[in-house]
Design goal:
Distance between the termini: 25 Å
Organism: Skermanella aerolata
CATH architecture: Sandwich
Protein name: Acetaldehyde dehydrogenase
CATH class: Mainly Beta
Number of helices: 3
Helix content: 10-25%
Strand order of the largest sheet: 3-2-5-4
Oligomer: single chain
Pfam families: DUF779
CATH topology: Hypothetical Protein Aq_1857, Chain: A
Number of strands: 7
Order of helices and strands: EHEEEEHEEH
InterPro entries: DUF779
CATH superfamily: HesB-like domain
Mean pLDDT: 90
């Protein structure tokens, strides 16, 4: 099955480093407030998700969520989480490492969209 969110090898390496420091992690795709539309990395359980968050999947063993309104805009694309040099948000765990996570995307093919539609909508983040 096609994944709604994936990770580059470079970002996966940063995630491994952050896990060694902070333990289990989770991501939330920002909707544009504090740091544009950057994916934010938190210790698992620190960012509370609700029915207004959509669970897109996992990257490098970490849960990945996006706000429901943001999902509506990006539902036709696969999110590709990458890392680049620079300083991102002070709220995201990678900031002190001199890098920031970045979301790239690609449009799903017609076949991939049909597969996703057949699978049904992703779960929300309510616990």
């Amino acid at each position: 099955m096609v994944e709604r969110v994936t990770v580059t090898p470079a970002a996966e390496a940063v995630i491994a480093t952050l896990k060694s420091i902070h333990g289990d992690l989770a991501f939330h795709q920002s909707g544009g407030c504090c740091d544009g539309s950057a994916p934010m990395c938190f210790p698992a359980g620190e960012f509370r998700t609700s029915a207004q968050d959509i669970h897109l999947g996992e990257i490098a063993g970490c849960q990945f969520f996006i706000g429901a309104a943001q999902f509506e805009y990006w539902s036709h694309t696969q999110l590709i989480i990458d890392v680049v040099p620079g300083r991102g948000s002070g709220f995201s765990l990678e900031a002190p490492e001199g890098v920031r996570f970045l979301t790239r995307s690609r449009v799903f093919s017609d076949e991939e969209m049909a597969e996703l539609v057949a699978a049904g909508p992703p779960a929300n983040g309510a616990h």
